[in-house]
Amino acid sequence: MAGTGIGARVERKEDFRFITGKGNYTDDINREGQTHAFFLRSPHAHATIKSIDTSKAAAMPGVVGILTGADIEKDKVGGLICGWMIHNKDGSPMRAGAHPALAQGKVRYVGDHVAVVIAETLAEAKDAAEAIVVDYGKLAPVVDLATATKKGNPVIHDAAPDNQVYDWHLGDKAATEAAFKKAKHITKIDLVNNRLIPNAMEPRAAVGDYNAGEEAFTLYTTSQNPHVARLVLSAFIGIAPEHKLRVIAPDVGGGFGSKIFIYAEETVCVWAAKKVGRPVKWVADRTEEFLSIAHGRDHATHAEMAMDENGKILGLRVKTRANLGAYLSTFSSSVPTYLYAPLLSGQYNIPAIYAEVEAVYTNTAPVDAYRGAGRPEATFVIERIVEVAARELGMDPAAFRRKNFIKAFPHQTPVIMCYDVGDYDASLKKAMEIHDVKGFAKRKRESAKAGKLRGLGYSAYIEACGIAPSAAVGSLGAGVGLWESAEVRVNPVGTVEVLTGSHSHGQGHETTFAQLVAGRLGIPIENVSIVHGDTDKVQMGMGTYGSRSGAVGMSAIVKALDKVEAKAKKVASFVLEASEADIDFKDGKFSVKGTDKSVDFASVALQAYIAHKFTGEQLEPGLKEGAFYDPTNFTFPSGVHIAEIEIDPQTGVTTVAKWTAVDDFGVIINPMIVEGQVHGGIAQGIGQAMLEGAFYDAGGQLLTASYMDYAMPRADDLPSFRVDHTTTPCPSNPLGIKGCGEAGAIASPAAMINAITDALGHETIAMPATPQAVWRAAQASLAKAAE
Amino acid sequence: MYNFNYHRPSTLRQANGLVGKVEDNKLLGGGQTLLPTMKQRLASPAALIDLSAIPELSGIEQKGRNLVIGATTTHAEVASSDLVKAAIPGFAALAGGIGDPHVRHKGTIGGSIANNDPAADYPAACLALGATIVTNKRRIAAGDFFTGMFSTALDEGEIITKVIVPTGAKFAYTKFRNPASRYAMVGVAVAKKGAKVAVAVTGAGSDGVFRWADAEAALGKRFNPKALDGVKTPDAKDLNGDIHASADYRSHLIGVMTRRAVTAASGK
Ligand SMILES: Cc1cc2nc3c(=O)[nH]c(=O)nc-3n(C[C@H](O)[C@H](O)[C@H](O)COP(=O)(O)OP(=O)(O)OC[C@H]3O[C@@H](n4cnc5c(N)ncnc54)[C@H](O)[C@@H]3O)c2cc1C
Questions:
Q1: pTM
Q2: I need a surface site. Which of A384, A484, A541, B206 has the fewest CB within 10 A?
Q3: Ligand 1, atom 23: nearest CA belongs to which residue?
Q4: B158 Cβ partners below 8 Å, 6+ apart?
């Protein structure tokens, strides 16, 4: 499509400044008199702090101040919070331990925050940190997810005596048991969703500033949701009331969920700025990120699926243990529960589902939402078990899926979700055509000739985006509403500023939001700028995560644009001397029905401000409207990914030979940006499936604390992706958008593992399926074949 | 990083003088290993003596049947050198497979050899090709130079000035990359000159680069991958195991990578 409106491949407006080094990231911000913070972190996974002696360190050159948990206590700085209450099976609340920004009496993971040194330079802060003497009383650590709740284990938080955070369930147990009684075939699988460490290009950073004259704080921080940060820092942590605390999240270089959360370091920087009377800056180095950013995933699951004699799915039961790490991070509790189990129905008509989730504390970094948050875990369970079931039944995996697809909408699953619309057959069919699944057998033979094993794997995923109706999430335990806000400010010359509560940190909102506005108002896209990420500019917002900025954030803009248009029509009616009901607005022009009288948008904007054509009694001057939009449902992006891989059985090296993705994202604003989101998501999913994994040793030391050991996907690990779409517009928002930010990462791990196990004829392979793991599985399957 | 003094001699003589005089110094090649270690505060020399401004330490020459490579010659220079590509193409390819473009344009052959990282590439090639390491004091055969992981025959204050690499062998280096770091998880260099075959293995040995004698004997009789059928790969107990690869997997990979190196060296 030509032009710049919805559907056009408009180049990203923000990229010029990013690729020419003109971005303004938190680390680029330097305040007058700024000091530098360095966090002394725990070298132990689990220990009491008997004493901290800072006297020698405090006397070292350049040291401005040293703060510890005792100062936090003295100043009554509140603990970091977990904003989603989960209830146990018996109705009692989850067991949450305190989460102080600086450790009080105990450290609970390697990287935990013991003290902060604030000095003139970072090097001086580090020197002084080395001189702090901490007397630790080492405790045995709890590291292993499987045995974390074993009787007699060391206790991590007194509030959770068996290290269990909650024991939660969803679905109808009795109905599911009954379904299994009727079953002709039951498929069982055990799988692990490996722990990942988010690696945004920009590590976390914060600058805290305090203006003593105004008694006001400013925090510059790498956040995906600065308003939520301000709310938490004000209402719960107690830094300052909201009108005395400004939070700015300037350019942010990627988040993937990890920058949603309110962290110890930013809290300490803003609090310490007042204490030392100078701005305090902290920038994480990469190893600090590995150690202390919220990790993702880390589930162990047993799942069983019941089928009748025709391969129709009757029921599903799932038992998952989720590792939440040493403390409950901001939204951690919701990830293995309400962001996970409600998606276990996948694209399938499953009459009965019962899911149980036990979440545990361990002496490892906190775990929270990471690209997909719960949905990749759910998709991995359902798409693996469906694949294994088809193979056990001797059915073609695509045919088995098709047989069990939901075909009528709306569809109420047994696990909360009501799918509004979709056409799962259409995306499967299109993906199979594009991929040339028919030619696979031939390609497999060619691989075999070269001594290689070829495999093909599907993933027919569904996810829930655009979170979400505030009342609905509130009833499930969320501490906040999940609406979004927008304000459209039309300037007298007809240019437009759009203030949004969404936050762009790679998504390209400055382009896509401007496409919507320019198209709707019929003005050049250059005349639109998008303002976000500053609590002093945007009044309130919920931020960006869960692929919600299109479906929810842009819907709020649409609502505000509706109001702008209505007001502008009133202005135009005075300008054109016609009745308001006779004014049409199209392609940037207001015209009087049935006449050739018209006036363009910019002229109307000017008239709105000079206000010569109407009196104050007739109409308020100005052209500025705001809106809050609360969605009526989740949105349900879905699609099919097909992975085709080739294995060198001698080494275990797996090459991704071919990848096809056909997604249904509803209406697409900018296909180029959507493709980019899908590419990045698939790269992350392939990373999870083949390369990435966070490993702790038995003592709780992180073995993968740098790129020497944590394998990120690189360009040459990936094939060229074929990305295409089918479209069923989303009925629950005005633009028909479903969301695309996480789909790639949600779909791809299952497709990869299904392809690898297809090639190997062997169902057990853990992620990451490294060359070593694949080689072992290949040996096992060759041995089995030889029997 | 801690503070340190920085010296940048422009002749080898000046460097020799500084090495003996400056307290607690370390030589700086490309800094690709030393500087990250200093940034992490794992090394804290009081002074660095940067060798990069000494013209006589850099460059590549063909001298008779040898290639002579100056110690501060970067991996990128070796990889793109027409001389190296013509004389020992596998050696140029090895250099082109080290790290990433940044590392290749800063890192030097002298630094790599002096560091003798157990997963580095050059040591295997030097050992297989029978290179000679020339220092400001003496000449050391590669076989005597690499004495264990991160350790070499270099004395305190000894500066590698050049590496002499004999040409005329059939040579190939095959590298199985560590999926994260892309250093060698197993790297095998095979060189055949006349009837003599040398096989050197990096990335796998629990004490650094080593020669695989059984393979050399078998390939000496018949230079063909099939000659290795039935030859037991190095014992896992002498090999490294870590989260990326257990010792038995490394042992297996040595067999695979050696066969592939033989095939490549044979020009098939
Ligand atoms: C991201 C990354 C990836 C890498 N990947 C690989 C890889 O795949 N394969 C591989 O082999 N290497 C790899 N390396 C290491 C790289 O090759 C380094 O360049 C090399 O190990 C050291 O060389 P340098 O010139 O940088 O030495 P420096 O870091 O400057 O010095 C290393 C050591 O050698 C000493 N030294 C330096 N020059 C001399 C000399 N002339 N005489 C005596 N002592 C000297 C120094 O004092 C120091 O102890 C990688 C490095 C990085 C950062």
A1: 0.96
A2: B206
A3: B111
A4: B135, B136, B137
